[in-house]
Description:
- The chain has 334 residues and is of the alpha/beta class.
- The chain folds into 2 domains: 5-113 and 309-332, ornithine cyclodeaminase, domain 1, CATH 3.30.1780.10; 119-305, Rossmann fold (3-Layer(aba) Sandwich), CATH 3.40.50.720.
- It is built from 10 helices and 15 strands.
- It has helices at 11-17, 21-36, 111-129, 144-157, 169-183, 193-197, 252-255, 265-269, 282-286, 308-325; strands spanning 5-9, 40-48, 57-65, 70-78, 90-97, 104-109, 136-140, 161-165, 188-189, 202-205, 226-229, 246-249, 280-281, 300-303, 329-332.
- An 8-stranded parallel beta sheet has the order 9-8-7-10-11-14-12-13. Strands 2-3-4-5-6-1-15 form a 7-stranded mixed beta sheet.
- Helix 2 crosses helix 3 (111-129), helix 2 (21-36) packs across helix 10 and helix 3 (111-129) packs parallel to helix 4.
- It is globular.
- The mean pLDDT is 95.
- It holds the Pfam family OCD_Mu_crystall.
- Its EC number is 4.3.1.12.
- InterPro entries: NAD(P)-bd_dom_sf, ODC_Mu_crystall, ODC_N.
- One of its GO terms (molecular function) is ornithine cyclodeaminase activity.
- This is Ornithine cyclodeaminase.
Amino acid sequence: MQEIWIDYLNALDAKALALTDEEILDAVEKALDAQGRGEVVIEPRVHLVPESSDKGHFNILRGYVKSLGYAGVKVVGDFVDNYKVGLPSEMAVLNLFDPETGVPKAVIDATAITDMRTGAVTALGAKYLARKNSKILGHIGARGTSYWNVRLLDHIYDFDEIRVHSRRPESRNAFAERLERDLGKKIIVTDNWKDCLEGADIMIEASRLPEPTPLFKTEWVKKGAFVVPYGTMSALEFDLTDIMDKVVVDDWGQCGPGKPYGALRRHVDEGKVTAENLHAEIGQIVCGQKPGRESDDETILFWHRGLSTTDVALGAAMVDKAHAMNIGQRIRFA
Length: 334
């Protein structure tokens, strides 16, 4: 059998690659465009719960992007109490394969990929669905993906005002300090959900609730706002979707009935959000098959659960850049 070598990129390598905001957004946007054109395969995520969901679980995401020539499988742990032992709540490994032969091509620390691609999907959702003159961002949550939400959104919009909130004061204060250092602008830290979200042009909910709790109030959403809730456990009031002119998802296959978790889980399972009244998947908008925002008065909600294809796209971008920069290791497989 011929020799097989695998590209291995660890967390230090991923950091050294220092993907730029534009590189991240470009890779993810191309994946969304390919999805809209039907040139990907997205298998709905599955979950492994070792003991109980109170402790945490693993998400297994599987996808294929034809234009990149890669299939990929990512396993990401989601363990909310990891901060108590000095670990991030989400850690991940991405495996890339040749879709023609099944040969493994790369093993990548995907913790940063998970954070970056989530933030990129949030930001690209705003690019197509938020008002062009959006100036106020309200962001709930301070986990790893939150940083990239704010950073990439601000890259597109250059906000006049950014408000943040999370449950633990030490978490939200550290989050704000990091954003102030990296974005070079003042961040408003709030001690409650209302002050953070009410009246914002773009409202992001990335909370870590132990069980569904309606902390995000419908009355705080002004007409024309763009709302992105993606907490594992829903923080929404049930009537929130009633005021939306459009509801968009990343992939209906993993948002539809019978799947566990998610911000709109009850809305879907009880028939409030259906395949029939859904406006579009984001890929259909990115590739031009369906319209995004059509007027400043539209109030729009975008629910994304995480696309395996965006993991593959960022992994491919990292491998290409690693080759160019001579970063990483080559490991003999066979």
